[in-house]
Design a protein that fits this description.
The complex is a heterodimer of chains A (about 400) and B (about 140).
Chain A: H1 7-14, H2 16-53, E1 58-62, H3 71-77, E2 85-86, H4 87-95, E3 99-109, E4 121-125, H5 134-141, E5 149-152, E6 163-166, E7 169-176, E8 188-191, H6 192-204, E9 218-219, E10 221-226, H7 232-242, E11 246-250, H8 251-294, H9 296-304, H10 309-339, H11 343-350, H12 359-390, H13 393-397
Parallel strand pairs in A: 4-8, 5-7
Antiparallel strand pairs in A: 1-10, 1-11, 2-9, 3-4, 3-10, 5-8, 6-7
Chain B: H1 2-6, H2 8-26, H3 41-66, H4 70-88, H5 103-139
Helix pairs in contact in B: 2-3, 2-5, 3-4, 4-5
The chains are: A alpha+beta (about 400), B mainly alpha (about 140).
Chain lengths: ~400, ~140
Amino acid sequence: MKLNESLSFRNVKGRPARSLALIILTALMTAAVIAGSVSVTSLKTGLNALEARLGADIMVVPASAASKKNFENIVLQGSMGYFYMDRSYYDKVAEREGIEKISAQLFLASASSGCCSVPLQIIGYDPETDFTVSPWIRKSAGREPGLLDVVVGNDLSVFVGDTITFYNVECSVIAKLDKTGTDLDTAVYANTETVKKLIAASIELGMNDFTDIDPDRSVSCILIKVADGYTVDEVLNDLNLHVRRTKSFRTKDMISGVSDSLAGVSGIIGVLMCAVWALGLIIMFIAFTISVNERKKEFAVLRVTGASRKKISHTVTAEALIITLAGGIAGIAVGLLTILPWSGIIEESLGLPFLLPDAPLIAALCAGAVLVSALSGAAASAYSAHRISGADAGLILRGDN
Amino acid sequence: MKQIRSRIGGCILFILSALLTVGIRVIFPACPAHDDGSFMTCHWAGQAVFGAGIALTVISCTVLIAGNGKTAAGASLAIVPLAAVTALMPDIIIPLCRMPMMRCRTAMHPAVSVISGIIAAAALVNAIVILRKRKSADET
């Protein structure tokens, strides 16, 4: 039998207002689930991408920088900002024990990228010693950037082969990095020599003031990988004790701040999703019970004319499935429309790494949400289906409840 | 009741078109002008969407007034390509700012695409519903 000829489908069609109300309710429930699950997955994907990009155990920054408001976002997520210390601190840190790899980075905020007058964070690194971003850059570019070569974050609308101008200095874009869902996606990577040249250009234009610091001997942060046989805590304590005017941090502790915020946001989303589902399920249960109660005589007539208990039960369950499937599909559309186009605003307002999962994972989440909504519909109607199929048709038709 | 039902489609189209027209100026406008008063290209995309939004609102008004007639079906069908072109105006027909975190990219672009897409879909469904109703009415 075709779907549109079935009794369940005609029952749904015959009461458009009730059906539409239930479809809208299911759509809202499914939209809440899909929007919530895509958001939580995006936050987790963003954190994973951020963790993968950070290869250092310890970060050393000037003591004065550690008190900056968004200091962690500057060093971890590529947010705008800069601070400098003399290169002698790099040498002092390098002399300490327990250090397997050490590399310095130099930050510079551009005044204009040549597009929309929006400044970018420029991160200078030393290709010879770097062990954090180099693997990513080599993967994307196939080679290390030379003088006045830059590698750009994924969100910048410049392409390989384009030129990008900072402080009137033209740089060539040699690669674009994979997306991380953080401000690193709008950052620009270059080798330290290029950044020093840009700093010199910015000073020449009167747009930067290094006061008593020599730009040629400046570093912004020092990244350290701890050697085997030493614990991160040992090296961290040693650095904090012996290299004065600097502050050393364990990178995992810094990420734990992001991770805690993420857990908090995910928890709130999870609670809201559960609340919407619990309320929706109760409303659906009541709606199906009232609807079946209203039509008790209809079902009794069906029983009398030869329909089996199983057939009655199937009809009620099929009605619920048709409604929840229609609502589920509509809810998927609504849920995706509320999340996918707005990922930029969400990322900006949360201030957390937010990276949309790839298409197959989104498709799997959608399929899961439709399945859950259909199962909820079946569960909500199961009690009504059981009651009506077990009721005595004769008693109902005599009007004896 | 029948009168109200026949105008639901027109009403939805009118509300969405008005939302697009007002929204592009008030809720999700393009990026502001530079300090020297010059505009980025996204400003002109916003202006184009505003113009198209006025046209959509006027045609939606026709659908609303015409109710269930052939005029309403024709006007609904006219909305479909106009709304589709409006959805393509930001970024595809008229380029936006290159930075992804600019207002034109985070708010204007998604809002215009989503609202215009819904208008196009709603107009198509409205036209089909009206034409089917008319066909069954003609048959009886």
